[in-house]
Prior knowledge:
The chain is an alpha/beta fold and 394 residues long. It is built from 14 helices and 14 strands.
Amino acid sequence: MKVAFIVQRYGEDIIGGAEYLTRLVAEHMTKYCDVEVLSTCAKDYHTWKNEYKKGTETVNGIQVRRFANSKKRDLNKHGKIQEKAFFTTHNLKDEILWINEQGPYCPELIDYISKNKGNYDAFVFFTFRYYPSYYGIKEVGNKSLVAPFAENDPALDLSTTKELFTNVRGIVYSTPEEQNLIKAKTDLKEEGKIFDIVGCGIEIPEIITEYKSLEDQDYILYLGRIEGSKGCYQLFEYYLELLKESPEIPSLVLAGYDVIGVPKHDKIKYLGFVSEAEKYSLLKNARFLIMPSPYESLSLVTLESMGCGTPVLVNGECDVLKGHCKRSNAGLWYQNYDEFRECLNFLCSNRDILDKMGDNGRKFIEKNYTWKKVEMKYLHLLEELTKKVALLEN
């Protein structure tokens, strides 16, 4: 079976997010399929500037075809178009303008899909809200699956989004919450479609090397991009307020790309980027992971924390994160400062319960997120898709 994975950016140096998950899935599915990745030359998701070399290369054993974007994103223009499409009365033309400006604007990629649709048994599109998915699914809808990575954002309300989910043959959901969200927002009818709740495999190293650069060994951990959309402004506000009331609470350690500026405080430690080995050491030894983001479609780091036996404290405004906690019994959630304070103090003062939650997290990952389970779900979806394609063609 020859399968094309279509994603807006692809590379070993793209860490985190849907693109990282796409690479993990692609590399694991090569055991069962001839996987080829179709992507653009972009590294930066803000501008889609062409940085990778156009053409074909091999990345970790997978053939990657890169196509040059025809233009960079104009951030000011994009903002104005998005404002109209999302928040005012508009028409289909306005939505198409948003898709084109949202990008990455890559007609070469769509032209390749159109001319080579017969050379692949299936097409899997990763993320729903970008140009390659909307136009690519228009070309190969009956042979396509989409892994939406949908969050509760206004793009789900667009008629073009409803069109995409109507045209696609199957859906690879990340969580039950994502499935419910998409069905509610798009009025999706699943009859006749192929679908499953899959997620991503979580693989914790058997041996975790200790991270030596952290002097304070009693800490709460945040991992990921440090930016407003991830809830970091609120995290800093809540943590600093709680420090005034309870100066003895553990330090807050952060690792990842800092967009907004980490506050200067003796109990806030910013480590910058860390390696994969360092990441797992930090997760394993933290009191708990804090995930303040109000918008997530899966959250790999939350699942990785549970896999390390480390409980989580999450933003309860995010149904996906709250759902992970409810199903695993490995975390707590908050929706305001008072709940944040009570949850944090509870987790810091109940070591036995913390240990039990850690055990629950490990069991939850072993039951639901091993790579073998994820691989088999993808394989089943692809086999069902090719059967339906064969019936349509005969």
